[in-house]
Every structure is written in structure tokens, then in C-alpha cells.
Design brief:
heterotetramer, A: Aldehyde Oxidoreductase, domain 3, 4-stranded mixed beta sheet, 3 helices, 9 strands, B: alpha+beta, globular
């Protein structure tokens, strides 16, 4: 399951999508909006996405993980639009037969998602706003 | 060749619009990049600027057609 | 939150217990009952627990993780009694400011839980049963 | 000294009961372990056998009292 949504992410749906009888391990990563970035106080975030390409890039990451680890199922939901403090921006879950590979695959997928998937976030803080990572 | 370019994030702010039309001299991604930076010098301030053609990251040598779906991909920051 | 329960684990309760405004990352591990162990077909599992000591040992693991990583909150729920295929035996969630440390802390805690916490599982398979890891 | 011992998992099956009472010669955890293995030889087949005193893992040298809460901890397998 790959989902880009402007609504609150349904964690139970993501977890339900990776249930697998041969799986003994599910590792999940949830990225949430923090109240602080360095010294600035974040008010909210705005996410935007090049959706058709984002879905293809996420699928590539899943395909790659399946070659590298015995992945049984993966589900990813990424939220876009305006997010408030504490909101969940991404929920990624993977099920594998054993525990170690679930952590490795989950961490690989979220690390790669942050590097290759065309999604952008703008931080709105007191006194300004900034596209994250845009500038050197 | 006249190309329609989708823009996102910091690049969109620098170019002042979600979709811009630009005329380039040349036929490949590298030519497009040069024209873009000449037209919108602020783009040179980005940490990186990738170009996607038909929803795939493209090499500088890739040839372009007017019917291609082209997008500017400034540094991503999902998750 | 530390919980030993004979009921189905409430994942939403575990995840809710680690929500933290300064957290940007939640890593969760869910251990489920697999249908296969080596070549044997598992019918069900029976878990038992030395509960007061188990809770203290889990607390020690959490305390240790908090020294080693910037852990904001941890929640652990471990189920006991009879579990069927696909049931969740353990749900462990940890929130931290950043992603890398959430994976490290979560993996450390589940690895250590499996080594030190007095909980035992018996596999009931076709034609026999066996306390897991009891014998060399 | 007479001690009440809680038993779990494979150790409980080997000793035939959730709680057993055992008389030991000596006063520490090591003495208890020797008496246990002499009385229930099957315990020697376990991959390991730890002893908890008052809900804490105990060293062999720890002194025991009749009022202690003592538990046999065969190899754990939670999660």
C-alpha cells in the first residue's frame, strides 16, 4: 500500500496492510512534526508533493528493499498539506519473518524516502518560513 | 523548443508559478538547465536541482520533446 | 507505560503513550506469531510471565536506553496466555527527537527484552510442544 | 533451611509444579542450585538456569533467607 493523503494518517490502516501470517516482525517508523528545529520554534509545516512521481519513487524503494531483505509486505502513508505540531507526516511499516531484517528494511526505506521521493516541506516558524534543505 | 515545466518547493517560489513555459536553445536536459538558471538566477542558490522527465529523474544528456512532462526537483525533504 | 496483558494488545494505546511534542520520530516493533518455525507448523503459542519481575526488568531496559539515547517516551505491552497465528505478542514503541536514535533505541530494547525479561513461550506444533530456547 | 521456589516454563514442567518447597544444605544461591539439580536432574539439561531472589537476578554467592521470594528462571523467550 502506498498512499499520499491530505488527511490525518490512519495508522491502523497502515499496520493492517502489512499483516502477514509468515511474518514474525513488523517494524514501523512514524515521523511527526516537532516543536523545535535547531533554535527556532516551529508553528506548522506545509508539505507538497509531486504525487505521481512520488508514488513511483516509493515503489522503487519498496522493490529494492524486497531484493535486499525477505520483505513480506510494506505500507507507506505520507501526508501533505498543512501539518500542526504533533501531527504525523509519514507512517511506514514493514513485515518480515524475523526482527533484525525488519529494522534494517524499515530504516533503509525511510532513509531513502527522505533522499529520493519528491516531497517538500516548508517550516513556518516565528518570524519566517523556509523550505527545508533547499539551500546549502 | 518550448517546454512546460512543473515547479515545486523552493524552485516554485523562485520562479513565481506552479507551471512555467520556457523556450530553450538546444534539445537536452543540460540545455534546459542552462536556460533555466540564466532566466531565474536564484535557482543557482539551491543545494541541488534535479530535473524529472515523465516522472523519472533524468540525466543531463537526456533528449527532450515538447510533449514530455518535465518537473524541477529542488532538494527533497519528505518524511 | 509497561503492560503485561492476557488480552489482545491495543496498538493505539501503546502508540498514544509515546506521543511527545519534542519528538520527531517514533519507532515501533511488533512481534507476531508466525505460522512456521524452522520446518514445524506452529498451531499456537502459550506465553507465561513472572509478572512483577518482568515489569522491573523492562523498566531497567527503558532506564538504560534513556541513558544511551535521547529517549522521550517508551511504551511496551506484552501479551501472555494462549496466542493464535497472527496474534501480536509484543508491541514496543519509542519516541525520540530524530529518526536514527529511534531505530537504535527500539532495536536495543526489543533485543534486550528477549534476553533478560522473565517471559517464556511454548510452541505447540503438530505432534508436540516445546519451550522455546530452553535446551541447548 | 526450607525455601519456597517459584518455577516457570521448562523448569516448572521438570519439577512438576508451579511452586515447590525444598530443603537445602547451605545458605546461598550456589547451595540452592546444587540441591535443585541433585533433586531434579532434568534441570541440568537446560541451556541455562538463573535464580532470582526478590525479583532480581542473583549471583551464586548471594545469601538466602527463608522469607526471600525465590524463582527459577530457565532461558527466557519473550517477544
Amino acid at each position: 500500500m502506498i498512499e499520499i493523503t491530505s488527511n490525518k494518517i490512519d495508522r491502523e490502516k497502515v499496520l493492517g496492510a502489512v499483516a502477514h501470517l509468515e511474518g514474525g516482525a513488523i517494524c514501523t517508523f512514524i515521523g511527526t512534526v516537532r516543536s523545535k528545529t535547531a533554535d527556532k520554534k516551529v508553528l506548522r509545516l506545509e508539505y507538497e508533493c509531486y504525487e505521481p512521481m512520488a508514488i513511483q519513487e516509493i515503489q522503487k524503494i519498496i522493490d529494492f528493499a524486497k531484493v535486499k531483505w525477505p520483505v513480506l509486505a510494506v505500507a507507506v502513508s505520507h501526508r501533505v498539506g498543512t501539518l500542526q505540531l504533533g501531527d504525523e507526516a509519514v507512517v511506514l511499516a514493514v513485515s518480515t519473518p524475523h526482527r533484525k531484517e525488519s529494522f534494517e528494511a524499515c530504516q533503509f526505506m525511510i532513509d531513502t524516502l527522505k533522499q529520493t521521493v519528491p516531497i517538500w516541506k516548508k517550516e513556518i516558524f516565528e518570524g519566517g518560513e523556509e523550505w527545508v534543505s533547499a539551500h546549502p | 523548443m518550448e517546454l512546460k515545466i512543473k515547479t515545486f518547493g523552493a524552485a516554485r517560489d523562485m520562479m513565481g508559478g506552479k507551471e512555467v513555459v520556457i523556450k530553450i536553445n538546444g534539445t537536452n536536459v543540460c540545455d534546459l538547465r542552462k536556460t533555466l538558471v540564466a532566466t531565474y538566477p536564484a535557482l543557482a542558490d539551491l543545494r541541488s536541482l534535479l530535473i524529472a522527465v515523465n516522472q523519472q529523474y533524468a540525466e543531463d544528456s537526456q533528449q527532450l520533446k515538447e510533449t514530455d512532462e518535465i518537473a524541477l526537483i529542488p532538494p527533497v525533504s519528505g518524511g
